[in-house]
Every structure is written in C-alpha cells, then in structure tokens.
Design goal:
The complex is a heterodimer of chains A (72) and B (261). Chain A has 72 residues and is mainly α. Chain A has 2 helices and no strands. The chains are: A mainly alpha (72), B mainly alpha (261).
Chain lengths: 72, 261
C-alpha cells in the first residue's frame, strides 16, 4: 500500500516535471505570436497557424509525459 | 475540515463514472456509454449537415443554414486555403467532416447528463488513425511509394546525415499519430474531471454546511460555484479550440506530406 502510494505520487511528480518545459515553450510561442500580431495585424492568420504548429510540437513532450504517467 | 474529508471519499466514485461501462447489450455485443454517445453524435452531425444542405441557395434563407455555412467556410478558408494552399479543394470534405464531428462531440459533452465521445482514448485513437492513414496515403499519391519514403527526410542534407535525420523524422511522424489522439483525449477528459470535482465540491460543502448548521462551510460553496461557472466557460472555449487544433494539425500534416521538399 505504502509503496503503491509513493509510486503513484512519483508518477504525478514526473508528469509535473515534464510539463515545465512545454509550458515555457508554449508561453514563449504565444508571446511571439502576440507581439508579431501587434506589430503587423495583417499577417495574423499565418502567424496563428504557425503558432499552433509550434505549440503542437512543444506540447508533444507534455503529452508523452501524460501517457507515460498512465501506462507505467 | 469535515467537508473536505467527505469530498475525498466521493472522488473515487466520480473517477469510476468516467470508466467505460456497458450500458446496452452484454459483454460480447454491447455498447459502452462512450460508443452510444459517439453514434448519437454521428446521427447529430448527419442531421445537421443534411438539413443544412437540403436547400442550398446562393443567399442563405435562415440562421441555421447560415451558421453551418459559416462553419464550412471557416474550414475551407482558414484550414484549407490558408494552410494547404495549392490543391486544397479535394481535402476540404475530409477536414470539414472531422471538424464538425469533433465539434459536435465536444459540445454534446458539455450538456449535463451527456457524455463526450472524445473523452475516451478509444474514440480519439480511431480519429487519429483515420487522419494518420489519410495524410500518408495523400503523401504516397503525391510522391509515389519510394518517393514518399525518401521525402520524409528534408532534401539538401549531406549524404552521411540522411539516414540519421530520416530516422528522427520517422519517429516524429509516428509521434504525430500519438499526439493527435492524446491531445484531444487529455484535454476533454481532464476538463470534465475538473468540472466534476468542482460540482461535487459545491454540492458537498452546501449539504455539509446545512447538516452540521455551520454557516462558514455552507458559504464556501458559493466560490466553488463561481469557480465552476468560470471553468465551464473555459471548457466551452477548449471544446471549440480542440476541434480547431485537431483539424488544423491534420491539414498541416497533409500539406507537409504532399508538398515537395
């Protein structure tokens, strides 16, 4: 019982550590998208698409962590 | 606090209600609640689209047809023309089907008492598989079998680096499959879990406050309720955004697979 509790706690901690990097990455991507849109509102469509692609790439790491927390 | 202990007792019950359980039929031929709601969402999507497409006129005659046409135009212009570019027209029906089905599934889950079909990994896995097969087949059609395998690695690399880069690009290709499925599932499941816990907390704090005649505990349920309302609004945004992200990523992958490197 004790060991199981520790293991499930460790899984959640591992996922939390794995979410730090993607969180920073998406934050930076969103910052760039906002600044770019503020300077040049007419390219908003293309900027937003690129932001979604970048966010998807960064988010992939967090999602792998999410999956690992479930299957391990 | 007493109410918190009651809450932590009820959380496993809430978690169990998210597990797949057979609601119609038996173990060999049965529908789980998610499959049942998936079929309902199919029918809903069909009805919405067919009713809107029954009487197509140049100028939409009522608000409903106008809304559906706006959604279709959104898929066509923002996701088709904006992302894929040249030759986007043949992909629009596929993208629009994905978009409308996921959108309707996500929004059906927001109605209390209904389940969202995208809240289980099986349905999102199937959707991701369809999209994965689709963009690979389109890539093979555009480049030919061997040409598509070669086009996974970007051209213009030194010869020594090609196998290594090709291998990493292959991993990222397969990861697209995984992330498409898990992104939709994770967002919908986690969102509904949070909504469930807040709703549970709101009710438990109120009932415990009334039972033990403790005004302080009862009053705490008001902020829980406000938080629940805010989260509900956020989930509405997420429901739309996840349908948009799934479709836009599919079209990005299609454009990556079919474009000449």
């Amino acid at each position: 019982m004790e060991i199981e509790l520790v293991l499930s706690a460790l899984k959640v901690i591992g996922y939390g550590l794995g979410a730090i990097g993607p969180g920073l990455g998406i934050g930076i991507a969103c910052y760039g998208c906002c600044v770019g849109t503020a300077r040049q509102p007419e390219v908003q469509g293309r900027l937003f698409t690129n932001f979604i692609i970048g966010a998807a790439l960064a988010e992939a790491l967090a999602l792998i962590g999410f999956v690992l927390a479930f299957i391990l | 606090m007493n109410a918190l202990e009651v809450l932590s007792e009820h959380v496993p019950e809430l978690k169990e209600s998210f597990d797949s359980a057979i609601v119609i039929g038996n173990g060999t031929f049965g529908l789980t609640q998610y499959t049942l709601w998936m079929i309902i969402c199919w029918i809903l999507t069909l009805v919405v689209i067919l009713v809107a497409a029954r009487k197509l006129t140049l100028i939409p005659t009522n608000k409903f047809i106008n809304t559906v046409e706006y959604g279709y135009q959104f898929v066509r212009n923002d996701m088709g023309e904006g992302v894929i570019g040249h030759g986007f027209k043949k992909h629009v029906p596929f993208l629009a089907t994905l978009f409308f089905f996921i959108l309707i599934s996500n929004f059906v889950g927001l109605i209390p008492g209904c389940k969202t079909p995208t809240g289980t990994i099986s349905v999102t896995w199937a959707l991701a598989t369809i999209s994965f097969i689709y963009f690979n087949v389109q890539g093979i059609r555009a480049h030919g079998g061997w040409g598509y395998i070669k086009s996974i690695a970007p051209s213009g690399l030194p010869v020594v680096m090609v196998p290594i880069i090709w291998f990493f690009e292959l991993i990222s290709l397969v990861l697209r499959w995984l992330t498409l499925a898990v992104r939709l599932y994770g967002n919908m499941f986690a969102g509904h879990m949070v909504l469930g816990i807040f709703a549970l907390a709101c009710g438990i704090f109120l009932t415990t406050g009334i039972q033990s005649i403790d005004i302080a505990t009862g009053v705490i349920s008001v902020p829980w309720f406000l938080l629940l309302t805010v989260m509900y609004a956020l989930e509405t945004l997420v429901a739309f955004l996840q349908a948009y992200v799934f479709t836009v990523l599919t079209s990005v992958y299609i454009s990556l697979a079919t474009s000449a490197h």
